[in-house]
Structure formats: C-alpha cells, structure tokens
UniProtKB/TrEMBL annotation:
Organism of this sequence: Enterovibrio norvegicus DSM 15893
Alphabetized PROSITE patterns for the sequence: PROKAR_NTER_METHYL
InterPro entries per record: N_methyl_site (IPR012902), Pilin-like (IPR045584), T2SS_protein-GspJ (IPR010055), T2SS_protein_J (IPR051621)
Keywords, comma-separated and alphabetical: Cell inner membrane, Cell membrane, Membrane, Methylation, Transmembrane, Transmembrane helix
Name of the protein in question: Type II secretion system protein J
GO biological process, one term: protein secretion by the type II secretion system
Keyword Cell membrane: yes
Membrane topology annotation: Single-pass membrane protein
Main localization, broad class: membrane
Subcellular location: Cell inner membrane
Tagged with keyword Translocase: no
Xref: PANTHER family: TYPE II SECRETION SYSTEM PROTEIN J, TYPE II SECRETION SYSTEM PROTEIN J-RELATED
Amino acid sequence: MAKVNKITTLTSRKAHGFTLIEVLLALMIFATLSVAANQIFRNVINANQQTEEVGDALKTLQRSLVIMDSDFRQMLARQYRNGGDEAEDKLLELGDNLLDSEAAGIRFVRGGWINPQQLFPRGEVVKVGYRLHDETLERIRWMYADDSSATEPAVMPLMEGLTNLTFEVLGEESWQKNWDSANVMPKAVRVTLETERYGELTRVYLLPGQKIADTPAGGGVQ
C-alpha cells in the first residue's frame, strides 16, 4: 500500500504543469530574443542598402570622370558655328549661365569620336558642352561641330548631387574664368565639381596650346 501511494505521488508531481510566472518568463525571453534578432536583421539590410548606394555612386562618379576625360583630353583648336550663325574666333566658350547652366558652362569641339568604317552619318569631330541643371552634371552633344538651329543636341545626365560647377582656363600667367583670346587655345582647363557626397573634386587637363590662322571655320591648326 505504501508503494502504491509513493507511485501516485511521483506521478502527480510529473503531471504538474508550468506556473504562470514560468510562462511569462519564457514569453519575455522569447520576445527579447525576437526583438534582438529583428534588430540584427534590419541592421544587415540597412548595411547592405548603404553598401549598394555607395557602390552605385562610386560607379557613377567613375563613369562621369571617364567621359569627361575623353572629351577634355581630345579638345581641338577648331572654329565652329552655333545654330547656323557665323563662326566666331573663339575656340572655347565658358562662363556663368552658358548653355542655361545654373552655374558655369563650357562648350568646345573634340576629336576622336570613333566612327568605324564610317558606318554612322557623321564625322569623328563633335561639339560638346557641360552644364549644371537641377543639381545634375549634364553633358550636351551636337551631332556636328557646325550645327543648325533645327538640330537639337542630345543631353545626357552624368551625375546627381552637384551643388556647384566651375571651369577655369590657364592663360599666359594665371587661371581665369573667361577666355577671349581669338583662335588660340589655353594651356590647360581646370574643372571643379562640388558634390554633396564627395565634397570638392578638381580635374586639370593640360592642352597642347594650339592656335589657328584667321581662316574660315575648320581652318588649319598651327
């Protein structure tokens, strides 16, 4: 009889459930772990998004600089017409509000625009310009160096997040923001980009200092 009572007591103890305090404690631990795991998961997602944004911004910057380098390093000493007007003796235009820029703008002719086997209806000389519009660096390209008023240029956004854009050219002795010398190219061009992400970026392009004789548009280079 004593053995039966002992077995009954052990069975009743084993069948005893969790108390309310134990259940609440377990729920609290589970909730704490869930919040911590959720926070870690969010941090991982945010870090991944920031990494992608930084990577995309860096790729955009590198692409923009490659395009600018290609244009400025192949600048030509060539007269050109704007909208069918007579060619001026300026080989390079720059200044505030040029090309409707919200800061400084620049326009010039470049060579080396590859046209393999003359497959496209154009030459290898093209007129390009740069401007700031809606905090975006834009590249403007005309199909021909001597364009007509009926020809609309192609506008390509390069990089967003610009706060200012300046162009300077090196004359005989100093840097200047305007270029009035007739039929003469400056010694160098300095481009300064003020960006929200990277701060101030400066590129300097050395030029061969070419000049042309007083001839019609497209005259020879001296």
